[in-house]
């Protein structure tokens, strides 16, 4: 009998073929079979995970009592059909989790029936009737393909969770009529979005890539990682490389950082669970983990700093960051993250969520300490920075300074702007986005026209406007090509100081700003110092707005108020939306403006003026026929016909007001004098607070690190070892 010998090559080939044909184990994305075993055990034990399970099961049980509704799409964002499809994908996912944890087949049947309903509907759909014709690509279920990709990210996980409860006929129908067409529509059907380095591309690549893992389409995974032609010019990895700085700062700012975090973390978790050899969480020295920490650090009192197109109510308790914190804790066991998880007060029903729940049950949380930080911007960290200065000497304070890049299409023309926060509230404010998110009655829930005509314009921010024209003349492409420079940043026990500059916002104009959050010795108080220098090659009108939250209390100069007739401050570039409520030209010396914030504290900006600065008091709301804008207050410091000017001011928190007890303390500014001088690269600010004289010295040398410097001031010698020095001159 002749024995046929099979060559090793053919054995290897057959093994590879069998491997390629093998069905993937389910579930195999964020939640895996290994997680399920531990999660099932946890729902029988008292603790946070069981509590979260019981709460979600009750919610799911109530919702699945109702008939399945899969409507023909017709509404834009916030409309009935939009919201119904959004609710559907969230419910499918949550119900799929219930099936895995309980093995109760009615949960799998519900998800199955909804998927089959979508499989009947989807082949009949053309592009959405409310699509944005001149904007991003449309979806079919939704008005934009972004929402379609979000639907796929959730729905593919729901399908994965109930896969083993389906028969082959149901699998074929759901995949052939629904999931594969959606994945192909979002990838090959819309290459401009799929290959785009942008949050829309992140959602699309995440959805298609996870679909590839579930439906055994490895080519989809490769295309999601490296773009459609697998060149590496686009795709998920390129997004990680370009959209985040080395410190984890996201190019579009904290609000979109939060939004993009979910697909980044979700797809990365799926990659880690399916192909751990890719070491996705180690990519770029762990940039995704850094991004999770950065999202936390770019918040104050639980809310994200509202730069660029930001909805100001979004904060660290958003579900995107709940998933992010859970993933980061599972990977690092950093007990400081448990402090954030505890504040979020949400446990996600995943393997990572279980680790967080058990750690919290065991009281392992440690305080998360927020630090003053300069987050470098740009993929190499060399396109300016977003600077956060913090102090907790007299209540938790934060000063945000923005010598950062444009931030793509969601960026605002606000180079070198700043914001200030104290005792839980926004004090010096930024408008954020002009939008009522998903409120269809307000422009379909989309960005309002005033987002372009006001919110993005420079005058809506706290930075210099030249000749009533926005930075880069409002051209996004020019803005994206020209970032400010972070000149220096330093934090010590004396406070934090930073400087930034830009000479491309206006032709022939150099803008430079230094901001410092200074701790005053012995007073247990802080002040914020602002030095804004403008040097131009010809004369201009210079405006420096300051937008504040609160009620104007007092000024030390007379205001000519416009009580009978209001007119806009200007005609375009945001000025047309500002009512001119009053005007004044203070005499040379100190000009003070005091307001009261709802936190019960007074704030005074004291300006050192030479008698040429006029003040224009404003209220937002002019040329706003649909009442889309919030009626917030501010004032503009203006000088005309100058080629060089330095704006100098000090912001001082002071006093207390408790209306319930009719109690008022120190409602008047306690800054009684302010002087400014320079010695070479040193800026010297003498300020008297509560009768005590302080000298603040800032070393603005161009050296990478400030060296020890000796200087003389009013016949006394001083030594400055750092960028920032604070000296007590007298105690009268």
Number of helices: 18
First-to-last CA distance: 114 Å
Strand content: 25-35%
Whole-number average pLDDT? 94
List low-pLDDT spans. 1-22
SS content category: alpha+beta
Q: Main beta sheet, described?
A: 12 strands, antiparallel
Structural Rg: 29 Å
Please name the CATH architecture of the largest domain: Distorted Sandwich
Quantity of strands, as a count: 27
User: What helical percentage do the residues reach?
Assistant: 25-40%
> Can you tell me the CATH topology of the largest domain?
Beta-galactosidase, Chain A, domain 5
How many domains? The number is 3
List keywords for this structure.
about 725 residues; alpha+beta; Glycosyltransferase; Beta-galactosidase, Chain A, domain 5; 18 helices; 27 strands; about 30% helix; lyase; Alginate lyase; Hepar_II_III_C; Alginate_lyase_dom; periplasm
Describe the structure.
It is found in: Periplasm. This protein has 732 residues and is α+β, with helices and mostly antiparallel strands. It folds into 3 domains: 210 residues, Chondroitin AC/alginate lyase (Glycosyltransferase, Alpha/alpha barrel), CATH 1.50.10; 122 residues, no CATH class; 359 residues, Beta-galactosidase, Chain A, domain 5, CATH 2.70.98. 32% of the residues lie in helices and 26% in strands. It has 18 helices and 27 strands. Strands 8, 9, 10, 11, 12, 13, 14, 15, 16, 17, 18 and 19 form a 12-stranded antiparallel sheet that branches. Helix 5 packs across helix 7. It starts with 7 loop residues before the first helix and ends with a strand. 51% of the residues are buried. The N terminus is likely disordered.
């Amino acid at each position: 009998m002749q024995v046929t010998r099979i060559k090793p090559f053919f054995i290897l080939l057959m093994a590879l073929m069998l491997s390629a044909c093998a069905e993937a184990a389910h579930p195999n994305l964020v939640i895996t079979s290994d997680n399920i075993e531990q999660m099932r055990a946890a729902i029988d034990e008292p603790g946070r995970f069981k509590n979260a399970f019981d709460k979600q099961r009750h919610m799911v049980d109530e919702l699945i009592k109702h008939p399945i509704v899969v409507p023909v799409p017709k509404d834009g964002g916030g409309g009935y059909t939009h919201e119904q499809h959004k609710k559907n994908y969230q419910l499918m996912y949550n119900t799929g989790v219930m099936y895995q944890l309980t093995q109760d087949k009615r949960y799998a049947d519900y998800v199955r029936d909804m998927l089959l309903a979508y499989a009947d509907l989807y082949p009949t759909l053309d592009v959405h009737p409310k699509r944005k014709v001149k904007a991003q690509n449309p979806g079919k279920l939704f008005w934009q393909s972004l929402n379609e990709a979000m639907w796929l990210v959730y729905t593919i996980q729901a399908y994965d969770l109930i896969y083993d409860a389906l028969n082959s006929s149901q699998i074929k129908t759901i995949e052939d009529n629904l999931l594969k067409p959606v994945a192909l529509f979002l990838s090959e059907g819309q290459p401009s979005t799929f290959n785009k380095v942008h949050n829309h591309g992140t959602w699309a690549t995440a959805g298609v890539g996870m679909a590839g893992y579930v439906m055994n389409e490895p080519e989809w995974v490769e295309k999601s990682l490296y773009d459609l032609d697998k060149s590496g010019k686009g795709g998920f990895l390129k997004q990680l490389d370009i959209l985040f700085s080395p410190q984890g700062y996201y190019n579009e700012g904290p609000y979109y950082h939060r939004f993009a975090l979910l697909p980044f973390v979700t797809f990365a978790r799926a990659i880690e669970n399916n192909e751990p050899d890719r070491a996705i969480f180690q990519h770029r020295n762990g940039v995704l983990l850094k991004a999770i920490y950065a999202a936390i650090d770019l918040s104050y009192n639980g809310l994200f700093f509202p730069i660029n197109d930001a909805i100001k109510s979004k904060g660290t308790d958003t579900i995107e960051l709940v998933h992010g914190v859970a993933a980061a804790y599972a990977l690092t066991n950093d007990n400081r993250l448990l402090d954030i998880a505890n504040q979020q007060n949400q446990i996600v029903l995943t393997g990572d969520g279980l680790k967080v729940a058990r750690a919290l049950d065991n009281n392992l949380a440690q305080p998360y300490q927020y630090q003053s930080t300069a987050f470098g911007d740009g993929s190499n960290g060399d396109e300016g920075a977003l600077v956060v200065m913090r102090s907790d000497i007299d209540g938790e304070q934060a000063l945000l300074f923005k010598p950062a890049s444009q931030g793509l299409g969601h960026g605002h023309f606000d180079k070198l702007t700043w914001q200030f926060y104290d005792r839980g509230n926004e004090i010096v404010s930024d408008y954020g986005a002009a939008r009522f998110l998903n409120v269809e009655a307000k422009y379909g829930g989309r960005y309002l026209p005033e987002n372009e005509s006001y919110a993005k314009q420079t005058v809506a921010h706290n930075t210099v406007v030249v000749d009533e024209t926005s930075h880069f003349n409002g051209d996004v492409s020019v803005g994206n090509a020209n970032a400010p420079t972070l000149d220096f940043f330093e934090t010590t026990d004396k406070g934090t100081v930073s400087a930034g500059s830009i000479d491309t916002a206006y032709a022939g104009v150099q803008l430079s700003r230094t901001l410092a959050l200074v701790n005053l010795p012995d007073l247990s108080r802080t002040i914020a110092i602002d030095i804004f220098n403008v040097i131009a090659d010809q004369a201009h009108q210079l405006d420096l707005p300051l937008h504040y939250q609160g009620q104007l209390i007092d000024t030390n100069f007379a205001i000519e108020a416009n009580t009978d007739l209001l007119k806009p401050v200007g005609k375009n570039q945001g000025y047309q939306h500002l009512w001119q409520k009053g005007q004044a030209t203070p005499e040379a010396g100190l000009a003070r403006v005091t307001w009261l914030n709802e936190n019960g504290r007074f704030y005074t900006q004291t300006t050192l003026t030479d008698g040429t600065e006029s003040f224009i008091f404003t209220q937002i709301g002019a040329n706003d026929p649909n009442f889309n804008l919030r009626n917030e207050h501010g004032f503009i410091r203006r000088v005309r016909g100058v080629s060089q000017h330095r704006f100098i001011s000090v912001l001082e928190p002071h006093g207390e007001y408790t209306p319930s007890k009719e109690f008022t303390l120190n409602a008047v500014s306690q800054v009684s004098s302010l002087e400014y001088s320079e010695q070479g690269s040193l800026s010297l600010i003498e300020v008297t607070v509560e009768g005590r004289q302080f000298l603040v010295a800032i070393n603005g040398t161009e050296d990478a690190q400030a060296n020890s410097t000796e200087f003389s001031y009013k016949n006394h010698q001083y030594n400055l070892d750092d960028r920032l020095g604070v000296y007590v001159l007298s105690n009268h």
